[in-house]
Amino acid sequence: MLNKVWVVSIDMGYGHQRTAYALKHIAKNNEIVTANNYKGIPEKDKKLWVQSRSFYEFISRFKKVPILGDVTFSFYDKCQQIVNFYPKRDLSRTGLVQKSIYSLLRHNWGKHLIKKMGKDKVPLVTTFFNVAFMAEYFDYPCNVFCIVCDTDISRGWAPLYPSQTRIKYFAPTIRAAERLELYGVKKENIYYTGYPLPEENIGRKESILKQDLRNRLVNLDPKKKYYKKYKILIDDKLGKLPSKSDHPLTILFSVGGAGAQKDLGLKIVNSLKEKLNSGEMKLILSAGIRESVKDFFVSKTKEIKNIEIIYEKDFETYFTVFNKALRRTDILWTKPSELSFYAMLAVPIIIAPEIGSQEKFNKRWIENSGFGVAQQDENYIEDWLFDWINKGYFAEMAMDGFIKGERNGIKNIKKHIIRCSGS
Question: Confidence band (pLDDT; 50, 70, 90) for 355?
Answer without folding.
Answer: confident
